[in-house]
Structures are given as C-alpha cells and as structure tokens.
Amino acid sequence: MLLDRLRRAKGRPCPYCGVPMTRQGKYRATRDHVMPRALGHDLNNGNCAIVCFRCNNEKADLTLEQWFYRLAHLSDRRALHVLRFLEQREAQGADQRLPRALQSVRYAEPETPLT
What we know:
By secondary structure, this protein is mainly alpha-helical. It has helices at 2-8, 53-59, 64-73, 78-92, 98-106; strands at 29-33, 48-52. The chain starts with a helix and ends in a 9-residue tail after the last helix.
C-alpha cells in the first residue's frame, strides 16, 4: 500500500514545498511522519504524508509547527506550503493535535515577507 502511494506520487507536488516529486534524487517521494515518531507518536496512516526527500530530511524529527517557525524565520517559501498543508489536515480532521499547532502557526509573523 505504501509503495503504491509512493509510485503514484511521481509528478505530484510535494505538500511541503510544491515541487513535483520524482522517483529518484532529492525530490523523490518519501513517507513523513507528520507528528514525529522520535517524539513518541504512532505509525498509523493518519500520521503519514507523502513528501519529497528534501523536505522530509530537513524536517527530520521536528513537529510541523517547529519546522514552520524555522522556515518562516529564514523567509523560506515552503512555510506557506506547510501552512496550507496544516489547514487541509485540520479540515479533514486528520489529527486532533494539529489544530493547536495550526493556531500557533497562524499567528507567526515572519520578520521579512515570504517569497
């Protein structure tokens, strides 16, 4: 099932950065645990997202909220994609812990405009 999702992701935009995912290289499709396993969160499908290797690698064991703040501080355009991803997950009711993170992220004011 996971392999099928990874194969189908080719050409689709990464939800964290918007770059089309590939089968090889730094934009290859990978599974991210939205709420990090390193912090004790579970393996269920609701906690997984198919994202590019570059974003997955950079996010590492950070929560989306922590990663968003890092991206916003660096004026990285991916912060806007992460915000949209959080909003979509909230609308789908994917995880009860995400609304608190989303509320916190909505009020984050980057020092410089994101481009």
